[in-house]
Amino acid sequence: MLESMLDMVPQGRVPVRIFNDPEIFELEQERVFGRCWVFLAHESEIPSPGDYVLRYIANNSIIVVRDEEGKVRAHLNMCRHRGNQVCKAEMGNASHFRCSYHGWTYKNTGELIGVPYWNEVYHRRLDKAEWALVPVRVETYNGLIFGNLDPEAPSLEEYLGGFQWYLDFYLKPGPNGTEVYGTPDKWVADTDWKICAENFAGDGYHTPVAHAFGFELGYFPSSARTHFEGVAVHIPGKGHAIGLGRTPGMPPFFGFPPEVVEAMHQTLTPEQVQVFSQVRTAVCTVFPNLSILLQPFSRIPGQPGVRFVTMRLWHPIGPGRIQMWSWCIVPKDAPQWYKDESYLAYTLAFGAAGMFEQDDFENWTNLTRQVKSTLARDLVFPYEMGLDLEPDPSFPGPGVAVPPYVHETNFRNMWATWARYMLRD
Ligand code: FES
Ligand SMILES: [Fe+2]
Q1: ipTM above 0.95, yes or no
Q2: Residue 120: its pLDDT value, please?
Q3: Among 3.30.70.870, 3.30.565.10, 3.30.930.10, 3.90.380.10, what is the CATH number of 162-423?
Q4: Which of 10, 133, 248, 290 has the fewest Cβ atoms nearer than 10 Å?
């Protein structure tokens, strides 16, 4: 089936069986999540030396910590002696981690420095240097910390492959970038991570239907008539994709406070300003499972509202099951009133009980259940929307930019990329 996808996907067909399947889930753990750069944390979650958070790559618990020199590190959260979980708190500050079983103690650099009764029971023979916490590769881009389990994987820069140009819209709203507003919202949902990642790679198609109330009640400035305007961009072979929706007549950088608009003119290139100043909705997926959405939203229907940015990690914890992580990020240099408003808008739309969130998960959990039925398994889905469209050669950003905002070009690139990862031994 995976082999056949290499031919099927470019022709606009994807097998139903890739969703909510136990064998696919197991293979993905190694071949996708074992090889890709997976999002771990935002740097502002661990601002000071010793700050740490616990995160995951596949089923590996990872300590993401800033060491005493200020360097961000990641370690497998497993004691090298018998495998106990070394750090049990979700977040905190620690110069050392001490295992609760036999007491092996590690510096936050991962170095093993304490072995109880080293003289008496090991007769000073155990070489501590051999038993440090297992390090995990980390690299960052503008505040985002990614980890990779594959020592052979290319650098994060190469992996992103030009997608940085688009990430800048979310991450460079001023000279000091962004910060998280509070801790992430977390919940468990019965949906395949791929459904969510695909949706945020530019499924503007569902918005006027699944979120119809948003248009009709005036929560955000778009209408079914103009909603499809804009462009969808993907990085060929990398799987990353973004949808940039535009609303004609919307003032440039609508919904941002003047301070942030001015700062963006400093931090972004003229080409980025030209593209992003026109954008209403920027919704993307960094392959495989990090998505980011920037959108204007009004808490009071009909009012102009503000922009909010949410980052979401669709962390797979079983076939057809995810642990959802959702952050709100705000421009670090923005006035406090704007940060507060932005967070409230995020919570109302995309917090755990957010209006848009409920619409999406209602659909995603339903379809995840349907696709595993015996009859459904052998079917295919149509992914042919936009097969007849041509890229815009004048678009100034990297990758392949295909107008308008809504079609399935991004998804075809994503599923072809996914299939290639899955086929590689
Ligand atoms: S399992 Fe950690 S010290 Fe034994
Ligand atoms: Fe949605």
Answers
A1: yes
A2: 97
A3: 3.90.380.10
A4: 248
